[in-house]
Specification:
CATH superfamily of the domain at 195-335: Butyryl-CoA Dehydrogenase, subunit A, domain 3
CATH topology of the domain at 195-335: Butyryl-CoA Dehydrogenase, subunit A, domain 3
Number of strands: 10
Strand order of the largest sheet: 1-4-5-8
Radius of gyration: 20 Å
Helix content: 40-55%
Mean pLDDT: 91
Strand content: 15-25%
Number of helices: 11
Structural class: alpha+beta
CATH architecture of the domain at 195-335: Up-down Bundle
Length: 336
């Protein structure tokens, strides 16, 4: 297996990194990415790079999603990349009808529309969907919802009769919605067996990559702080107990990077693709939250304030670690 990034992937990482560096400031991670910035990413062709050719894209490889996710995580950027592009739009691009692709994907590719991914307890009869999906990220701003249940999926426009979305605020400052379907018209998406799991696994891979990126940022900022903060006439980074904490944080970061690479470099059609991502989630989710908590502890009381990215990074990691299930849930899936 080749662990070296290709020339294309290096350019992709540098493009996303430069874009985010130009648009972040002291308020990093304080709220969702501005809509004009999301559209600018679409105009740069980023979403096309992450979707298959059938949907007007140029790729759709897991390793590209991993690279972009890690850069977003390092910037603590709150975006609908995983749910809208890598899961919902990916399902439409690969398995939707020609009419569905033509209607929904051009606006998603340009960044002018977002698709929300809804999973929950739903039933469909005679083309109408009933049920409830809680904590659906980006549902409030979505042009349509892609509802996934087991190996089936449906498209529900945001203006469908019988659709009710109650907004809720999540811990990282982003909005989600508790979605109620009451006889909404639903367009089926013809999924082959395992298709939903592959797209959802790719979205999960992006979450894991974002956590690794956030870990890198929090570790680097904590090391810089330990060099500058002085107590008893010396930098706290010279104290042995602090050095030990920083060393354990570094080891955890590198272990998480290794698991991310192992999961992200597999192909979607590999038998172990989904399992590798679940294994990475099981370790990284717990390690990322522990590293973020250590970063806050080493910063002291100011680490939990909104003045520093450290506290916002902890809240972001806490959310990412629980999307599509916690670390404990991932371990239970592996055991099963």
């Amino acid at each position: 297996m080749n662990f070296e990034a290709s020339e294309e992937q290096v350019l992709l990482r540098d493009m996303v990194g430069r874009f985010l560096a130009d648009r972040t400031d002291a308020a990093i991670g304080q709220g969702p990415m501005l809509r004009e910035d999301w559209r600018a990413l679409g105009e740069l062709g980023l979403f096309a790079f992450l979707l298959p050719e059938r949907g007007g894209g140029m790729g759709g490889r897991p390793q590209d999603a991993m690279i972009v996710g890690e850069e977003l995580g390092r910037a603590l950027a709150i975006t609908p990349l995983a749910e809208s592009v890598l899961a919902a739009a990916d399902l439409v691009a690969r398995h939707g009808s020609a009419a569905q692709v033509e209607r929904w994907l051009p606006a998603v590719l340009s960044g002018h529309a977002v698709l929300a991914l809804a999973t929950g307890d739903v039933t469909v009869r005679d083309g109408r969907i009933d049920g409830r999906c809680d904590h659906v990220r980006w549902a409030v701003h979505a042009a349509a919802l892609v509802v996934v249940h087991d190996d089936t999926a449906w498209l529900v426009p945001a203006d469908a009769l019988g659709l009710d979305i109650a907004p809720i605020r999540l811990i990282d400052g982003s909005l989600a919605g508790n979605v109620l379907f009451d006889g909404c018209e639903a367009e089926p998406i013809a999924l082959p067996p395992g298709a939903a799991a592959a797209s959802l696994a790719t979205a999960q891979l992006a979450y894991v990559a974002e956590m690794v990126g956030a870990m890198a940022l929090l570790y680097e900022q904590t090391v810089d702080y330990a060099r500058q903060r002085r107590q008893f006439g010396a930098a706290i980074g010279t104290f042995q107990v602090v050095q030990h904490k920083l060393a354990r944080m570094f080891v955890a970061l590198e272990q998480c990077r290794s698991l991310l690479l192992k999961a992200g470099l597999a192909d979607r059609d590999d038998p172990g693709f989904e399992r590798g991502i679940v294994a990475a989630k099981a370790y990284v989710a717990a390690a990322a939250q522990h590293l973020a908590e250590e970063a806050v502890q080493l910063h002291g009381g100011m680490g939990v304030t909104d003045e520093l990215a450290i506290g916002r990074g902890l809240r972001r990691v806490m959310l990412l670690a629980r999307l599509f299930g916690s670390a404990d849930a991932a371990r239970a899936r592996l055991a099963a």
